[in-house]
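Entry 14. Ran structure prediction on the chain below.
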Amino acid sequence: MGIRRKGRILAFQALYAHELSGMGLAELQNFSWLDPEDLERIREESRDFARLLVAGTLEKLADVDGTIVRQLEHWDFSRLNKVDLAILRLSTYCLLFQQDIPSSVTIDEAVDIAKEFGTDDSYRFINGVLDGIRKQRES
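Output, structure tokens:
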């Protein structure tokens, strides 16, 4: 698994932890919620990338959430599965504010993370929402 993939997974987990516990940025970025042995196995480059993604996502959370809400059809934002929400927030941040990463890479990574951590239907839902954001951004 690549450095950035591990960083994205770590960032997703941090955003999920934030949603459940309300942990602050400093605590999220030092990964105190992760087992120390697991953290040791993650390269520093992956941790740095995760820190960047978490900080950016939380800094732009109002913009990110607003973009997600505009893409939801017949679905209430407050009813989103917390795993799906963390993946959507991370990926929406990347689509909106990390222009150097191709949209297709961001969406593919989100779908893969959803397949690993989400429900059976999460990846289809996430793909649809993110593709809508991509189309809106490109128009």
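Residues 3-21 form the longest helix (19 residues). Will compare against last week's run tomorrow.
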